[in-house]
Design brief:
With 108 residues, the protein is an alpha+beta fold. The protein has helices at residues 10-31, 70-78, and strands at 52-56, 81-85, 88-93, 101-107. The protein starts with 9 loop residues before the first helix and ends with a strand.
Length: 108
């Protein structure tokens, strides 16, 4: 029987979305500004100033836009570990009782 291709990756998408929401909450708390996940998708928060894509760091393809520094300086202080590369900023954070996660933050 052929595998139903549409089902592949569904769980990964859901997990990624959860990680993005978590990171948006984290950033809101740290910087005192409202962050939302993937603002470029439009909707209710289309014009928020600190729009950013937050993705769990697994693999990266393609070039991403330049880094943004204001809020990320604060993120860097608050996060356990932060590093920059061409694709954005990697932030490591750990919730109590959870595995530490690496999140990649890109400016949109």
């Amino acid at each position: 029987v052929m595998t139903d291709r549409s089902k592949i990756g569904r769980n990964n998408r859901a997990r990624g979305a959860a990680a993005e929401r978590e990171a948006a909450r984290l950033l809101t708390k740290i910087t005192g500004m409202e962050w939302y996940r993937n603002i470029d998708r439009g909707g209710k928060y289309g014009d928020v100033a600190c729009a950013t894509a937050v993705v769990e760091n697994k693999t990266v393809t393609g070039k991403m836009p330049p880094l943004f520094d204001g809020a990320l300086a604060q993120v860097a202080e608050a996060a356990e570990h932060t590093e920059k590369d061409n694709f954005g900023v990697l932030v490591r954070y750990a919730r109590p009782g959870h595995r530490a996660r690496w999140l990649r933050i890109q400016e949109l």
